[in-house]
Amino acid sequence: MAKAKPHGKILVIDDHYGIASEAFYSRTDFERDYGVLPFTFAFSSAWDEGSGRYTVEEALRAVETHKPDGVLLDIVFDQRGPAGKLGLEILRQLTARFPALPVVMMTVLARDEAWSECARLGAVDYLPKPLDARLLWQTLDRYVGMGLRPEDWLLGQSPAFLDALISAAQASEGGRTAVLITGDTGTGKELLARYVWRHGARANGPFVPIHVAPVSFELQQAELFGAKKGAYTGANQDRKGYFEAADKGVAFLDEIGNIDLRAQANLLRVTELGEIMPLGAAPYRVDVQIVSATNDNLGRKVKDGEFRQDLWQRLRGIAVHLPRLADRREDIPFLLRHLLRVEALSRRTSNPALPIPTLPESVEASLAAYPWPGNVRELRNYAMRVIDRAGDSPPDERMFLEVFREWQRESEQVPYPDSFAHEAKRSDGATTLQIRSTGSPQDRLQQLRLEELALLNEMLEKTRDPVTGALNRAKAAALLKGKAKCNTNELDRWARSLWVELTPESRELAARRFPEIAASIKLVAAGK
């Protein structure tokens, strides 16, 4: 069954329409695969009749007139500068004036000759001429349509990253085969899962992210597959599971290695029969593609008896591995430029004059040599600190290097991504959760989240019925007023959002210290 993709408008800025037009209007494959042509096009030659030449101003005027969702920009224009590279001048001003607009370059020049400078100027991708129609659509699909924001773009040109992207595109085609995404923490596994959904046959259905937290079987079962009222202690009403919510779409199971062995049997039933088994209710069918992700070694878990081999085989119908930044170092400067832009754009709502930082070429080699063990997430944290330090001024080379040396020192003191949480003995013999303080962003995040969980636990304990021992969530929410912006309905969501930001070791310690939270507040993340 053909799929319908939402349209996006692409502005093509090229002095020769004929070179590209065959690809733009090669509809046969895409009417079969998409049902509709996924993008509409507007054209500008950047030719200014008044001056009788190609100009940057005319190209910018076309962007303001057409208000496109993305731009395809040629590099070489006739009769302009060395090799006629007017496109680079247009790109420089486009990314400065419209920093959230994705610009894909196209040219007959060799990739090595063209891409390096284009990337520094803010282009997100590159297409060789003559354009290949399928590559054109797939490239545009990474950046345009379905409400994609700059932080959702899948960026990278390294062979290791492009291999993962090709595998994800193949995984999306049928919309039925299970996909297993592996990779270290912070590599962008959920972004890739969303790409499988957007790019695939289920783009019109829901995408339901599910964080598989290490909680009891009953809680996992209820969250994933649903439960009838009274099926377990605390089940006061019928509960709709995530798989039911994902019907006709994609269920993304993050941290799949945490799933309870008994719940694994029910997940196997979904993969084999398309059937879910709610607690206390009869089974029924759902139509769901399962995309799961893990930074665990599931093969080792199978050998240790912690994960079913038959389920592992079913989940990795198509396996996609996202490389570490250490394995795609050539992408690091490119990604950092993009993350600096994303972070600055997010802050412009409160500070419209905030400049978009430029990464000095002189620091690229130093940054690319560092392994960034926290991967893209760590790189973004570094970008945030640079912008924080710069304030309202654009950061210079000295500031980038100063923050980078600081970052390296902190990483040597407390290796990322190990947990910073530990239990300490008080003078009265009781144990408390504490955080080693090094000042790193991960350290501070762990400290803050655990303090918030402790506050929530304190309020819950104050509401405990002295006779039955039951907790009163409504009273707990009332106690939190003035201390946290929270009401009864938001209590679970708040607790979940704290839980998912803890490192695995911190999460384990928090579960021991705050058992009522894990048991009664159902700490299973709802995802982004």
Could you explain the architecture of this structure?
The protein is of the alpha/beta class and 528 residues long. The protein is built from 22 helices and 16 strands. A 5-stranded parallel sheet has the order 2-1-5-6-7, with helices on both faces. The chain has a 5-stranded parallel sheet with strand order 9-10-13-8-14. A two-stranded antiparallel sheet has the order 3-4.
Indicate the topology.
Layout (H helix, E strand, L loop, with lengths): L7 E6 L3 H8 L3 H7 L4 E6 L2 E2 L4 E2 L1 H11 L3 E5 L11 H12 L5 E5 L3 H10 L4 E4 L4 H9 L17 H14 L6 E4 L6 H11 L7 E5 L5 H9 L16 H4 L4 E5 L6 H13 L1 E2 L7 E2 L3 E6 L3 H6 L5 H7 L2 E4 L10 H16 L16 H6 L5 H16 L6 H17 L7 E5 L5 E5 L5 H22 L10 H8 L10 H9 L4 H10 L1 H6 L8
Concise structural overview:
Helices cover 44% and strands 13% of the residues. The protein has helices at 17-24, 28-34, 56-66, 86-97, 111-120, 133-141, 159-172, 189-199, 217-225, 242-245, 261-273, 298-303, 309-315, 332-347, 364-369, 375-390, 397-413, 441-462, 473-480, 491-499, 504-513, 515-520, and strands spanning 8-13, 39-44, 47-48, 53-54, 70-74, 103-107, 125-128, 179-182, 207-211, 250-254, 275-276, 284-285, 289-294, 318-321, 421-425, 431-435.
